[in-house]
Structures are given as C-alpha cells and as structure tokens.
Amino acid sequence: MLEFSKTKACILLFALILLCGVVGAYFFARNDDGSNIDAKNMHFLIRPVFAQDIGEDATFLEEEAGISMYVNIGQFIDISTVKTLFKTIEKETLDYIVGSISLPNYPETEDAHCFIHKDGWIVVYYLRHEPMSKIIDLNYYNSTTGQLTTTKLQIGLKMVTNALGASITGARYYYFTYPEANKFTIIIDEKYGRNYDHFNLKLPSEYAYYEFSWANWFGSGDWPLGWDPYIAINGTTAVYFISRNWRTTTYGKLGDSQFEPDVWYRIDIYSLCDQRFAIVLVYREP
C-alpha cells in the first residue's frame, strides 16, 4: 500500500488499500483523528482506442504528446468549422487538425495543444518534456474535501466541447510519454501562516514508478528579503522558491532517484506563507 503519516490535521493524505478478491485499489484520505474521506485525487490512465481507430493519424500524438485528456463526443466534426478554436494551427488535413489553444485567465506559457478528428475525437495535451504537474492549478483545491476540483486539461477540453455543443462526459486521462503507466495520484499538503509543516511518504515496491513531479502555491504571508522558502526531502533541499507570485501555481519535476520504494521519506515545507504543495506520482499498479 501507499503509506503516509502526518502530524497535523490540516492535510489530507492518501493511503492505498488493496481490496480482497478485487482487482484494483481504493484510495482514501486520512485525517489525524483516524477518520477517512473518499479521495478524489487519484486518476486512471487509460489508453485511448482511437490509437487503433484512426491509425496513422494518431502516430504524431505518440511522438509529441505527454499527459493528455481525451473524449469522443459521438458525432461527426467538420474540421473546417473548428479552426477558430485554435490560437495557432500546426497541422491540418481533411481528417484532423492540430494546434494550440489558449486557456481562459492563464498566461501563454500554459497554452495547451489540441487534436480534433472528424470521427469525434478531441485530445487536449501538454508536450512530452513537460511535467505531469503542469496540469495542476492549486487555486482549485478544496480545503474542506481535499479535492482538486479541475485541471487545466479539463478546462481546455470543456472549452472545446462546449463550443461544439457537446460535453466531456466519459473523458479520460492518458500519458503518452509513459504508455505502461495506469494511474497517477496527487498528494496535496496545505498549511497556514508562519508555521513550518511536513508529511511522510512511503512507496510500495510492487509498483513501477515513472515520474515524480511537484506543484506549489503561495497564498499570503511573510516573505522576508534575503530568505526564500524551500522543500526538503529527508533533510536535503529538493525545491527552492524564488518567485513571489501570490496565488499562482508553479511546477516542476523531482529527480527519479529522490524516492526509493519501501523507505519512509519526510517532506518538510519551510515557509512563512500560506502554502499548498503537491507531489504527483505516475505509476503502474500491478
């Protein structure tokens, strides 16, 4: 099981329980008082059938795309009518169109890529070299439920489907960079004020791990000149913050060698600010 321990009740952490006689797993959030709340921050990674349905049209996605969210809206799409949805068009054929789309209220750096196929497939994605945690906006973290209520890819996909009079019902995530991965989990710690914070994390050896990344958000508080917040893993600085962009989510990758299975790791959060810090695990559950 994925094991976590925490010293304060302000964080909801995730443990993995294998159900007897059932293939798969069930995640729950644990408060310090022992109460459990269903966790919403675990997602399946499911290979899309369009990789077979549209054949060579999907090849470039396997070469270019990283984390993606996709749906089939169940209706024919006239490629000539969707051009206005794109900020830039990278490729256009009679069957599909590919380009970048602007996400509302985000800077250009957060633009997503979009693939639309006449057979009803819509894929919104970030590029292979970008971390999984780029999809996270911690402004959408619900402190009460411990739930991240949306992602940037979901915002982009909904924007496109709404324009086509469709919905994102049945949408799924898939990570083209790691086709063997079948799940990802987002672990979020939230703290308030001038206190430091920490949580503990242990990963099961029976899982295969493909990527560790992080996302961070500062709310309000003190940031003395000459001193910058940082994250330490077992006493070694892993993420160092120099940005003072309040209520903006930053993100990046953690080194693959920073976590070994079956070892307890202490993640310390050093800041004088309100802060949300997330670790994203991409893995394959047997």
What fraction of residues sit in β-strands? 35-45%
Shape: globular
Q: N- to C-terminal separation? A: 12 Å
H/E series, N to C?
A: EEEEEHHEEEEEEEHEEEEEEEEE
Q: What is the mean pLDDT?
A: 84
**What is the strand arrangement across the widest sheet?**
7-8-9-10-6-13
CATH architecture of the largest domain, by name, is: Sandwich
Share in helix: under 10%
Low-confidence stretches: 7-39
Total helical elements: 3
The whole-angstrom Rg is 20 Å
For the record, the count of structural domains works out to: 2
Polypeptide structure, described:
The chain has 286 residues and is mostly beta strands. It has 2 domains: 3-39 and 184-284, Sandwich (Jelly Rolls); 50-175. Helices cover 8% and strands 43% of the residues. The protein has helices at 50-53, 59-64, 152-163, and strands at 3-6, 13-18, 25-30, 36-38, 42-44, 65-72, 88-92, 96-101, 112-117, 121-127, 141-142, 147-148, 172-175, 183-191, 197-202, 208-221, 230-233, 236-240, 250-254, 265-270, 273-284. The protein has a 6-stranded antiparallel beta sheet. A 5-stranded antiparallel beta sheet has the order 1-15-20-17-18, with no helix packed on it. Strands 5-14-21-16-19 form a 5-stranded antiparallel beta sheet, with no helix packed on it. The N and C termini lie close together (12 Å).
